[in-house]
Amino acid sequence: MKILVTGATGYIGKRLIPLLVNDGHTIICPVRDKKRAESYYKNQKKVQLVEADFLDSDSLNKISKDIDTAYYLIHSMSNSAKEFHLLEEKCAINFKQFSETTSIKQVIYLSGITNDTKLSKHLLSRKNVEDTLSSEKYALTTFKAGIIVGSGSSSFEIIRDLVEKLPAMIAPKWLNTKTQPLAIRDVLAFLYKALEKKELYNTSHDIFGPEILTYKEMLLQFAEVRKLKRYIVTVPVMTPKLSSYWLYFVTSTSYKLASSLVNSMGVEVIGNKSNINQLLNITPMSYKKAVELAFKKIEQNSIISSWKDSYISSGKLKNYVHEFINVPAYGCYKDLKKRKVKNSKNVLDKIWAIGGNTGWYYGTFLWKIRGFIDQLFGGTGLRRGRRHPTELNVGDALDFWRVIYADKEKGILLLYAEMKLPGEAWLEFKMEEDILYQTATFRPHGLAGRMYWYAVIPFHWFVFNGMINNINK
């Protein structure tokens, strides 16, 4: 069977596609940046990548029309909280118009639970997308989920940050909002088992875990799993803006995403019961069980996807990492270091482990200070870390950098800075025979950029010299 999967590089898509491939299906993946997606699916012969953007209807002509089923996993979140719902609607319209010209019989859409009388803008947008996707040419199957719990999910990582960093919390009143968290494994089971299930054609079902919990109870149960004692006091006086700043400074989320989450967290996410669990023979697991399984994945270093690798986690890159692959030469400042190496394999292993818990090999406190300053100005700081301790793929987040190119066999790693800067910055490691080249490139924007470069030259001298020396030890 040929299956179209949108959102192939997203949190859900990267976990669903392997399940479909294992069943022998051919997967068609329209992606905005083919070079980024190739790093995820380079060894998957059953996965066909097509560079197409559902915001551009003309680009969809590249996609094969000989398709049986489609998964709609697009959640367009722009850097401007005011326009994301318009982008979601446009994507849905273009997808529907394209799908109606194909042989698609069923579209499976993952949405959010929308039963509260007062919905956030994000949930209203999800509801609007469902209405938009409805068609007489194909059958629509909609699953509406609440909080998704799994290694690398935004809700899981935010709760993890709060629990592990704060022994006591004075928290906003929305922590008393009720929700029904659902394990990522169960989400994937619903999506997978709904394939060609005619009983689900033109139906919509809420999918949720067995417990109704407040966010406060979720935090405390998370703490129990981690064997931590935590104290939480909720106060009614914390405004949405203060709540957003609270999330932003304590967790790894961006301020814009924190604002969106705060607006959604005031809405109860309680599902309507149906016979969907019996139809698909699924018994959703408890919240604590979902957290325990997530930590097993983390301990095994087998996190398949993370929300931090989404461009929304920084907001600096939009669609295409390869636009930044050609490091500029004109009008730039460069800091070039080179060292002769004795064991290139060991050196490359150290380069591929850089950042995250490993750190940057020299002046860790200076990197932390730079990350804190970046956070004060609304940047990502060093909070994102990295998805895997030794693996890097194009598009991965790496502290306040983004991986633009990574080829260990060729000995090249290129990073682009997503920190707040009066200019643009690249950091490249390149191994040529037995010489390691480490190049920092900065393209200033105006006088402020030039002043910034000269102000940090003394720090660069210590940090970049120390870094390449320690990598080469």
- The total beta strand count reads 19
Work out the strand percent: 15-25%
As a percent range, the share of helical residues equals 25-40%
Structural class: alpha/beta
Query: How many helical elements?
Result: 14
Give the rounded overall mean pLDDT: 86
Mass-distribution shape = globular
Question: Span between N and C termini?
Answer: 52 Å
| Sheet with most strands | 7 strands, parallel
Q: Which regions are unreliable across 5 or more consecutive residues at pLDDT < 50?
A: none
Secondary structure layout:
Elements: E1 2-5, H1 13-22, E2 26-31, H2 34-41, E3 47-51, E4 69-72, H3 84-99, E5 106-112, H4 121-133, E6 139-145, E7 148-149, H5 154-165, E8 168-172, E9 178-179, E10 182-183, H6 184-193, E11 203-207, E12 213-214, H7 215-225, E13 231-235, H8 240-250, H9 255-265, H10 276-280, H11 287-299, E14 333-340, H12 344-352, H13 364-376, E15 397-398, E16 401-407, E17 412-417, E18 423-432, E19 435-444, H14 446-471
Parallel strand pairs: 1-2, 1-4, 2-3, 4-5, 5-6, 6-11, 7-10, 8-13
Antiparallel strand pairs: 9-12, 14-19, 15-16, 16-17, 17-18, 18-19
Any overview of this molecule?
Helix 5 packs across helix 7 (215-225), helix 7 (215-225) packs across helix 11 and helix 8 packs across helix 9. The model has no long low-confidence stretch (mean pLDDT 86). Strands 3-2-1-4-5-6-11 form a seven-stranded parallel β-sheet, with helices on both faces. Strands 14-19-18-17-16-15 form a six-stranded antiparallel β-sheet. Strands 7-10 form a two-stranded parallel sheet. It has helices spanning 13-22, 34-41, 84-99, 121-133, 154-165, 184-193, 215-225, 240-250, 255-265, 276-280, 287-299, 344-352, 364-376, 446-471, and strands at 2-5, 26-31, 47-51, 69-72, 106-112, 139-145, 148-149, 168-172, 178-179, 182-183, 203-207, 213-214, 231-235, 333-340, 397-398, 401-407, 412-417, 423-432, 435-444. With 473 residues, it is an alpha/beta fold. The chain has 14 helices and 19 strands.
